[in-house]
């Protein structure tokens, strides 16, 4: 039994409301599923009632909880369903015609059903016994506060409510007040000092922007060489476009790369997650859809490309070193981003300067073909645009001017294999606030 399970199970089994501060990878999913199943199994459940509702911030995490719940109820007559965006809403409606005991959902999709009262879902939720908000801080970060408040209005006051959260931001206070009973129990399994997996070996690699791809290549090759039969690596990128472009480049260079980001369909992401979960000797290039909650066993290395924020750094790092196992974390920063490390000054991070190898590698050879490969060139152009979009929103943190960002964009474009920065739509440039700074404007295509 894990620390969070030992701390929360006795209280939850008594039926009390709980706010639990818990890191990812500590067995918290089982901590709330076990008492929920126990309660439903013993209760006098009303006909066609949804007895437990679990709200999750992402499709991937919701799907994972659904899988665990189904395993746990194998020998019970308890049905579990999962409703998330990006899947058939008509299929959800068919499921609502049948009995559902445990419903796992993302807030947006559940709101769709409630607004239209599909399958008489409003009536079914009137008999709810347990409400669980998993990754509550993330639910709020992703803008689900209004959806959650609207959903709460449909639920009975007499219920047990459980909130699990890795952090306790001020924005959580309002949800606590309306969701939890006043006499709820607060359980902290993290503490003030233990904000991340301290046993994870962490390194920051500083390089020139033009050497960032080479630094990633060297990091991956070194880890694979050191762990030839047991490597499982996640590489996080700041944008979906960057993740997609880099995945295509490294795949062309014969790396065993899987691609996971928000621009892929839900079905594709589910298949990719399952593949990564089951395999070893594999690498996943991802945006932050994989940063929290989702459990991938035996991840040996997490690489973070470019700056992020402190909380996201911690949650990404939490993909490795899970369940007490060893793991390694590497953040690769361009020199203009290195002050981000000031935000992580209390973390045991070893700083390292990247030494560029003049010898051309397999990725360099792929980058040389970018201008001749229409697909890769289009993806490089999209990655360049997303580079500007991401960093223009972080100018103050980086103490950069817009003119300096445009110059960095030129360096980034050439690093991706483009001859120079590509033209962008005038509307896109204006939306980023980068007009009149020398960016190339795409010529409008006249219809015949």
TrEMBL record:
It catalyses: ATP + H2O = ADP + phosphate + H(+). It is an enzyme of class 3 (hydrolase). Residues 219-367 form the Helicase C-terminal domain. Its EC number is 3.6.4.13. The keyword rRNA processing does not apply. SMART domains: DEXDc (SM00487), HELICc (SM00490). Residues 9-186 form the Helicase ATP-binding domain. GO terms for molecular function: ATP binding; hydrolase activity; RNA binding; RNA helicase activity. SUPFAM superfamilies: P-loop containing nucleoside triphosphate hydrolases. Keywords: ATP-binding, Helicase, Hydrolase, Nucleotide-binding, RNA-binding. CDD domains: SF2_C_DEAD. The keyword Membrane does not apply. Coiled coil: none annotated. RNA helicase. Belongs to the DEAD box helicase family. The Q motif is unique to and characteristic of the DEAD box family of RNA helicases and controls ATP binding and hydrolysis. This is ATP-dependent RNA helicase.
């Amino acid at each position: 039994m894990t620390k969070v399970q030992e701390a929360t199970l006795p209280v939850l089994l008594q039926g009390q409301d709980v706010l639990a501060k818990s890191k990812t990878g500590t067995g918290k999913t089982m901590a709330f599923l076990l008492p929920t199943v126990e309660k439903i199994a013993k209760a006098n459940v009303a006909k066609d009632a949804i007895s437990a509702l679990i709200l999750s911030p992402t499709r991937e995490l919701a799907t994972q909880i659904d899988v665990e719940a189904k395993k746990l109820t194998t020998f019970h007559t308890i049905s579990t369903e999962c409703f998330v965006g990006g899947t058939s809403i008509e299929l959800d409606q068919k499921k609502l015609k049948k009995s559902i005991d445990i419903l796992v959902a993302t807030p947006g999709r559940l709101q769709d059903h409630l607004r239209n009262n599909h399958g008489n879902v409003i009536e079914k939720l009137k008999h709810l016994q347990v409400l669980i908000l998993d990754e509550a801080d993330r639910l709020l970060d992703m803008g689900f506060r209004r959806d959650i408040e609207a959903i709460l209005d449909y639920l009975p006051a007499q219920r047990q409510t459980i909130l699990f959260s890795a952090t306790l931001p001020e924005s959580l206070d309002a949800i606590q007040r309306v969701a939890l009973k006043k006499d709820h129990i607060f359980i902290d399994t993290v503490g003030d000092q233990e904000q991340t997996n301290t046993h994870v070996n962490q390194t920051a690699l500083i390089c020139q922007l033009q050497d960032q791809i080479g630094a990633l290549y060297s990091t991956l090759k070194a880890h694979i060489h050191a762990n030839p039969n047991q490597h499982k690596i996640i590489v996080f990128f700041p944008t979906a476009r960057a993740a997609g472009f880099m995945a295509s480049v490294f795949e062309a260079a014969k790396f065993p790369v899987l691609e996971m980001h928000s621009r892929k369909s839900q079905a594709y992401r589910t298949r990719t997650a399952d593949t990564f979960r089951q395999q070893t000797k594999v690498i996943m290039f991802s945006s932050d859809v994989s940063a929290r909650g989702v459990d991938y066993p035996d991840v040996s290395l997490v690489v973070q490309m470019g700056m992020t924020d402190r909380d996201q750094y911690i949650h990404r790092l939490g993909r490795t070193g899970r369940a007490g196992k060893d793991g390694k974390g590497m953040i690769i920063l361009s020199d203009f981003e290195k002050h981000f490390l000031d935000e992580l000054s209390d973390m045991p991070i070893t700083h390292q300067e990247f030494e560029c190898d003049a010898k051309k590698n397999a990725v360099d050879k792929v980058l040389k073909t970018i201008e001749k490969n229409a697909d890769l060139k289009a993806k490089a152009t999209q990655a360049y645009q997303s580079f500007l979009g991401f960093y223009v929103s972080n100018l103050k943190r980086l103490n950069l001017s817009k003119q300096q960002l445009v110059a960095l964009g030129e360096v980034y474009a050439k690093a991706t294999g483009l001859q120079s920065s590509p033209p962008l739509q005038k509307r896109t440039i204006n939306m980023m606030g980068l007009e009149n700074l020398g960016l190339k404007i795409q010529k409008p295509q006249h219809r015949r």
